[in-house]
């Protein structure tokens, strides 16, 4: 059912009951009460029957079909983009139930709740105090009940605040990774303004625009709302006391009735089913409330016994004017009254409520009458699978076809209560923890990856292997006078940006090996590459510069990482190998299998760690001696040859011999990035640095680079083009003219594809939790545009991902570009507060790609740092040319392949187009042209 604008007046009548708001993220306050221990949210002791699973799936479809992706909210009624705080509480309860009933997975849960809470933080509050009574669910604007935008709003509802506080408690208990976020939301609100004299007070705007505080709640709902407040340490003793009430005999049953009626207070004292049902499934019926609930159910049975009319009454939307009614046991002196909020009677529209029937059936599972009325509505779903209808009209026997979040949310909450063995959702001993870790579903085995992949860490190996003892490594001794980063930031992070930075840093907290200082390249495997360690060091620098971590944590982690870098076995006693077990420090192949002699080295990985180590020396010079000691232990004789970067691989011959082969690096973008890093240390890599002639392919009418024309090598050339290396280059080194000529068409092609197809495109290499484990969502690959490739070159059908890291980086580099803004909006909520940002989402389905990696979260942190550095390159120039490294270089031939001259081969310059690093050697060729491959 849709509300219509001309129903504004009627809809305003429900202001004292179903009103509310949304919220959002902020920071942290201490919370005086946590209602539940981590115990059994996921403990399904009474699994749903196949029939019940059908009920649950049907109810969940309402929220699937009424989801507003721009805000993360859901419509309060089918197709109508409006909602109160009560409606939002319904959705959170439904979402939690859907997660534990396996109607949705953890990734979808995280995406939905992150978007919900993020939008919530940007909501304008009524008089900067509490959420407005109602918002537009599609754009989060403050509105009236006709969904008309209002700058000021129409007040707040204390009952709705109580409803969502109860929902918040369930979320923070069952999903504690959101605890701090929710506490920050509550801290932002002036909740105490809605409490007075131990009671709940709402706010309303009078005709003269003055704000009037009005006591809210009558017997049943008043107690329920106050319980929500108590969960967060706000006391309302009068509201929870049950008084004032009296008993009224109806159909031979003494029914408790609030004595504050419409005539004396202008508020209805209705007796309905829902308040008792909510209290029962969430808090557990105890004492007088248990007695009251049993009476309210019994009187409805008595009415059926007397009249033959099945009865399950509560408030509901209806599919015709006046659109919302209270079907009551008693209201304002009348038995079985059906009224509007203004106490206008509509007895012809009394109905059997679907949610009430579900509630009584599972709250009193042995009650024959509850089963009878339930049987009438249990299949009352819309034929187009849009959820459960609100009920059945008593008079016409026709369905009340109103579709609402209230009905479907309560059904899901009730079914979850049943699945938990009829244990209340909020008790002192309920609730288990969802970690949200994807590793629970990760495959235990992964194929080997190509040897030249700089961002592909090893993944899980077969089980049945002995337990590996983690090697302990002591950090290097404390450095003299630890200093803060000498970076000058243009501005601090915004609150939203800080939330993103903190979420990204969570990856490095969750995957840290405290005994040796290493970080896993991906969350589902205990392994690291040198590229990954470079990512970690860059993330560490960004987190400290952004004040996400303290100087003490930065120093401890940095000294630990520098220590373990000296302990990693070198391949051929020359250079660090391609991969290491992060527990044993043993060399491993890309399948995670130990290889005592190692499996070669990657010049690209070396470039990544060299860039990060160089920047550490520049921004934190106190670590210079320790850094130089590490890199002086390495031999560069074979990695830099005749101005070209080369990598080593190990091949097995038929006779069983292992042979080392050294070949030039040719991965487009990665080679150029690594070369610039080597230039920082004085190496002449002029033939690997950006420049010369590049072949292109026409993609979306844009000439996209696909490979460098190479007269200097016959090695296998680049097989695909992705965004990652170009973005990293741009963030760290800036866009020099040569690189800009490659960077811009790569971005333009993706933007053009979006304009043509509507598909968000952020092409990158990403890691996922299932085969093929590594996916290259290419701009062009193997001669075809927009194909997704596995490491072995096989096409992955429907495998393309929109990369979270790429979206953040493009927005940092091109903040005014409309397409980069679209990308960021589509990906900012793809994170788990305990595990970091997900890799992205699938283009074809929109589902989150489960996978957490060092590389993605590092690039997000670097992108945020780039934003607050006034878009200056993250790599800063050093002024210390007398460090141990340069002193050794000055001595001449060392037998280690050190540079020939004591100067860097690149320098940072600025011009009208910005700041960027360029090759310092005049011999480095410029990009002279391109050849189009049609």
Please give a structural write-up.
The protein is α+β, with helices and mostly antiparallel strands. The strands form 16 sheets. Strands 7, 8, 9 and 10 form a 4-stranded antiparallel β-sheet that branches. Strands 25, 26, 27 and 28 form a 4-stranded antiparallel β-sheet that branches. Strand 27 and strand 28 (658-664) form a beta hairpin. The longest helix has 21 residues, at 287-307. Mean pLDDT is 87; it is low at 1-38, 428-465 and 922-934.
Radius of gyration from CA coordinates: 32 Å
Calculate the mean pLDDT score and round it. Answer: 87
How many strand segments? 43
Largest sheet: 4 strands, antiparallel
Specify the number of helices. 25
pLDDT below 50 for ≥5 consecutive residues: which ranges?
1-38, 428-465, 922-934
Residues in helices, as a percent range: 25-40%
What are the salient characteristics of this protein?
alpha+beta; 4-stranded antiparallel beta sheet; disordered C terminus; 934 residues
Give a quick rundown of the structure.
The protein contains 25 helices and 43 strands. With 934 residues, the protein is an alpha+beta fold.
Please specify the SSE layout and strand pairing.
Elements: H1 8-12, H2 50-65, E1 67-68, E2 73-74, E3 82-83, H3 85-100, H4 106-121, E4 125-126, E5 130-131, E6 135-136, E7 155-156, H5 158-174, H6 179-188, E8 195-196, E9 199-205, E10 211-215, H7 221-231, E11 245-250, E12 253-258, H8 262-265, H9 274-283, H10 287-307, E13 315-317, E14 324-327, E15 330-331, E16 334-335, E17 338-339, E18 351-353, H11 354-363, H12 368-377, E19 389-393, E20 399-403, H13 405-419, H14 495-510, E21 527-528, H15 530-545, H16 551-565, E22 570-571, E23 575-576, E24 580-581, E25 600-601, H17 603-619, H18 624-632, E26 640-641, E27 644-652, E28 658-664, H19 670-680, E29 692-699, E30 702-708, E31 720-721, H20 724-733, H21 737-757, E32 765-767, E33 774-777, E34 780-781, E35 784-785, E36 788-789, E37 801-803, H22 804-813, H23 818-827, E38 831-832, E39 836-842, E40 848-852, H24 854-868, H25 884-890, E41 906-911, E42 914-919, E43 927-933
Parallel strand pairs: 29-43
Antiparallel strand pairs: 1-2, 3-6, 4-5, 7-9, 8-9, 9-10, 11-12, 13-14, 14-17, 15-16, 18-19, 19-20, 21-24, 22-23, 25-27, 26-27, 27-28, 29-30, 31-34, 32-33, 33-36, 34-35, 37-39, 38-39, 39-40, 41-42
């Amino acid at each position: 059912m849709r509300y219509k604008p001309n129903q504004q007046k009627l809809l305003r009548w429900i202001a004292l009951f179903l009103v509310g708001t949304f919220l959002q993220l902020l920071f942290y306050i201490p919370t005086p009460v946590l209602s539940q221990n981590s115990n059994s949210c996921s403990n399904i002791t009474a699994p749903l029957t196949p029939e019940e699973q059908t009920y649950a799936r049907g109810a969940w479809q309402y929220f699937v079909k009424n989801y507003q992706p721009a805000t993360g909210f859901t419509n309060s009624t089918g197709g109508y983009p409006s909602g109160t705080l009560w409606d939002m509480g319904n959705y959170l309860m439904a979402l939690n139930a859907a997660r534990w009933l396996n109607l949705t997975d953890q990734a979808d849960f995280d995406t939905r709740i992150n978007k919900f809470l993020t939008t919530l933080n940007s909501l304008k509050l009524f008089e900067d105090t509490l959420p407005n009574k109602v918002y537009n669910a599609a754009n989060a604007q403050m509105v009236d009940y006709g969904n008309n935008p209002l700058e000021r709003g129409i007040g707040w509802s204390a009952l709705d605040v109580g409803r969502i506080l109860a929902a918040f408690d369930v979320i923070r208990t069952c999903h504690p990774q959101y605890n701090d976020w929710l506490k920050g939301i509550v801290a932002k609100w002036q909740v105490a303004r809605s409490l007075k004299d131990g009671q709940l007070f709402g706010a309303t705007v009078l005709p003269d625009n003055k704000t009037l505080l009005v006591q809210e709640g009558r017997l049943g709902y008043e107690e329920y709302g106050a319980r929500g407040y108590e969960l967060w340490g706000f006391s309302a003793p009068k509201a929870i006391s049950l008084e004032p009430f009296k008993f009224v005999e109806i159909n031979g049953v003494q029914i408790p009735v609030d004595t504050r009626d419409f005539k004396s207070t202008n508020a209805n004292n209705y007796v309905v089913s829902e308040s008792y049902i909510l209290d029962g499934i969430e808090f557990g019926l105890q004492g007088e409330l248990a007695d009251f609930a049993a009476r309210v159910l019994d009187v409805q049975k008595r009415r059926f016994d007397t009249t033959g009319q099945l009865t399950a009454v509560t408030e509901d939307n209806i599919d015709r004017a006046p659109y919302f009614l209270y079907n009551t046991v008693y209201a304002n002196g009348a038995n079985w009254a059906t009224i509007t909020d203004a106490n206008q009677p509509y007895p012809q529209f009394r109905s059997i409520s679907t949610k009430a029937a579900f509630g009584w059936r599972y709250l009193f599972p042995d009650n024959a009458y509850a089963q009878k009325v339930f049987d009438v509505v249990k299949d009352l779903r819309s034929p187009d699978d849009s959820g459960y209808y609100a009920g059945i009209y008593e008079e016409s026997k026709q369905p009340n076809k109103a579709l609402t979040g209230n009905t479907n949310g309560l059904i899901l909450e009730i079914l979850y209560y049943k699945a938990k063995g009829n244990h209340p959702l909020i008790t002192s001993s309920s609730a288990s923890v969802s970690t949200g870790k994807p590793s629970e579903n990760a495959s235990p085995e992964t194929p080997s990856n190509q040897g030249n992949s700089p961002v592909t860490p090893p993944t899980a190996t077969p089980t049945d292997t002995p337990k590996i003892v983690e090697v302990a490594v002591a950090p290097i001794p404390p450095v003299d006078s630890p200093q803060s980063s000498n970076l000058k930031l243009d501005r601090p992070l915004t609150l939203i940006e800080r939330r993103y930075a903190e979420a990204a840093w969570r990856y490095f907290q969750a995957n840290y090996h405290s005994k040796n200082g290493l970080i896993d390249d991906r969350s589902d495997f205990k392994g690291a590459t040198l590229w990954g360690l470079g990512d970690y060091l860059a993330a560490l620098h960004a987190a400290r510069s952004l004040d996400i971590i303290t100087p003490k944590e930065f120093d401890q982690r940095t000294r630990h990482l520098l220590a373990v870098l000296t302990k990693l076995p070198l391949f051929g006693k020359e250079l660090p190998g391609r991969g290491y077990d992060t527990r044993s420090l043993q060399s491993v192949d890309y399948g995670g299998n130990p290889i005592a002699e190692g499996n070669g080295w990657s010049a690209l990985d070396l470039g990544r760690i060299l860039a990060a180590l160089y920047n550490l020396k520049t921004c934190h010079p106190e670590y210079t001696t320790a850094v130089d000691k590490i890199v002086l232990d390495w031999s560069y004789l074979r990695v830099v040859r005749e101005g070209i970067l080369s990598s080593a691989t190990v091949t097995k011959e038929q006779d069983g011999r292992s042979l080392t082969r050294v070949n030039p690096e040719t991965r487009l973008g990665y080679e150029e990035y690594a070369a610039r890093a080597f230039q920082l240390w004085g190496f002449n890599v002029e033939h690997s640095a950006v420049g010369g002639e590049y072949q292109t392919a026409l993609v979306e009418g844009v000439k996209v680079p696909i490979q460098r024309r190479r007269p200097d090598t016959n090695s296998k050339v680049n097989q695909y083009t992705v965004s990652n290396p170009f973005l990293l280059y741009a963030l760290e080194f800036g866009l020099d003219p040569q690189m800009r000529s490659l960077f811009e068409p790569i971005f333009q092609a993706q933007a053009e594809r979006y304009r043509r197809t509507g598909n968000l495109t952020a092409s990158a290499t990403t890691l996922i939790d299932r085969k093929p484990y590594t996916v290259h969502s290419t701009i062009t690959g193997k001669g075809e545009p927009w194909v997704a490739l596995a490491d072995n070159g096989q096409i992955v059908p429907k495998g393309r991902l929109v990369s979270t890291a790429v979206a953040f980086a493009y927005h940092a580099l091109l903040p005014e570009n409309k397409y980069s803004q679209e990308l960021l909006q589509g990906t900012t909520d793809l994170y788990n507060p305990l595990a970091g940002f997900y890799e992205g989402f699938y283009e074809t389905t929109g589902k989150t790609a489960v996978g957490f990696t060092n590389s993605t979260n590092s690039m997000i942190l670097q992108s945020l740092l780039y934003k607050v550095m006034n878009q200056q390159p993250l790599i800063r120039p050093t002024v210390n040319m007398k460090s141990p490294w340069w002193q050794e270089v000055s001595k001449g031939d060392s037998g280690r392949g050190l540079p020939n001259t004591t100067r860097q081969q690149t320098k940072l310059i600025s011009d009208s187009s910005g700041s960027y690093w360029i090759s310092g050697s005049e011999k480095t060729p410029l990009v002279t042209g391109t050849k189009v491959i049609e």
